[in-house]
Here is the input.
Amino acid sequence: MGGAASASLETRLSPLQDTPGGAASCGMQRACAGQGSGLQYNRIHKNGRLFQPAGRELRLNMTETAFGEAEGRPVAQLTLSAYGYHVSLLSYGAAIQSLVLPNGLDVCLGYDALAEYQEQDGCLGATIGRYANRIGGAAFTINGEKYRLSANEGTNLLHGGARGFDRRVWNYAPTAEGVAFSRLSPEGEEGFPGALTVTVTYSLLPDGLRIRYEAESTRDTYVSLTNHAYFNLAGQGNGTVLGHTLAIAAEEYTPAGAGNLPLGVYAPVAGTALDFRAAMPLGSRIEDALLAPTHGYDHNFALLGTGMHRAAQLFCPENGVSMAVHTTMEGLQLYTANFLSARAGKGGTRYGAYSGVCLETQRFPDAMHHALFPSPLLRAGARYDECTEYRFAFR
Here is the structure.
């Protein structure tokens, strides 16, 4: 049973060549799966301003709404609509505020007001950078020079530091199939070397959502970008995800020690509560001793495959909704919102522990300190180009 499920998860996707109206490839030898839409659409600003990419026919509906102000700048809510999907994005944190499926369910946790994104922890739906997950000791050395970073979780750095990308206002511009958020992270921001130019592009697909991450630095630096969406396929605010089943295309994970920092080695998932080679309910082993230090799942998996590959499959038995995660990244952090405190969510809903599940595609945490892990080093002038897709199906 486990072998059959693992083989299914390892199925590779056919690369997509760039075509008129199609998706751009992610990386030199990494292509985003799926075909271009060819969908007719309009972009409409609530104040009457029309968005139109130069030289491209309009193909999807996009509305812009004021969402407050931060850093002395206006924050926008941008809602994309196509194929029955509606995704609302925020220029604060380049975040997913909501993702409404064709069946009418909003499957992403989020807030109704900007103040909640500014005041609450948890990074709901946000873009994470410069480095997702943890860096031990909030420091690293590159080319013989030591850099001290912003320590925001004890002595370690978590999700980019005290003011990571999730707490910044981004620029934005329409694209042929969605919207691109961009910002210049200046030299020394949160202690990182190099001025880093970053673009995060959201595109609607016939069956879901694609996120493309691009970056370039003026100096050698470390980069790992991800999105911190909390998914609940039963609908945001509709109970916990412990009844969801999950399969992950990984035979190994990276064990962690104090502070949830990796030990720098790989361990087999076989025979442990981390064995998701065959689909298992998230709650079936949630009390396992292996998960006690993190009160649930908060673990990095070493994904099988290269290029664009299927990483995970989430399924809600309650309504038959499934979500496949495809990515070009080598790591996946499974987090079951163990430390999400009780709080108000969108539309008067309530959130708490296990209200959602994060499937964060990433470089390995603290990888710069462990020789056995793939290097997260981005050389000056080189291009960081990664992709993650969330594809939905309905039974």
